[in-house]
Amino acid sequence: MEDGEKKLDKYYYDLYFPPLTGEENFTNSTVNYAGWGFLGGLSTGAYRSVMRGRPPLAGWPLSLLMGVGLAVAADAYRRGLLAYKEYTVRRAFYYMTLHPEDFPPPERIKFADYWDTWETNR
Q: What biological-process GO terms show up in the record (predicted)?
């Protein structure tokens, strides 16, 4: 950085881009939307067939296709929302790096400042 330029405080870097801890997010590492759609379609189709008085696996291909299709569509929608959220955060952070004078480091407020002095009434 050149002389006279201000740098954004480390607080904002950690706020927008937290350091990696090395732990994987359990939900993102195990969720397979097509697999859940397969199971959901199969169970929904079996339930629908039983309620109509048909054999449980009657019409199972349609149920599986609908379940997998809905799961893939839900995954695409979720990924789109997450991409938009990341774009918005990165755009805001870019603005903050261009104008660090508008974002001073936050004041540290101690927990004791919120408490009144304790007075006993006897």
A: mitochondrial electron transport, NADH to ubiquinone
Sequence letter at residue 70: L
For the record, the structure tokens of 20 come out as 């990696």
Instruction: Report pTM.
Output: 0.59
Burial of 87 (0-12, 13-18, 19+ CB in 10 A): exposed
Give the C-alpha separation, 20 to 26, whole Å. 15
pLDDT of 69-104, one tens digit each? 888 888 888 889 889 988 998 898 899 888 888 888
Mapping DSSP to helix (H, G, I), strand (E, B) and coil, where does residue 55 land? coil
Of the candidates 61, 77, 71, 73, which has an alpha carbon nearest to the alpha carbon of residue 40?
A: 71
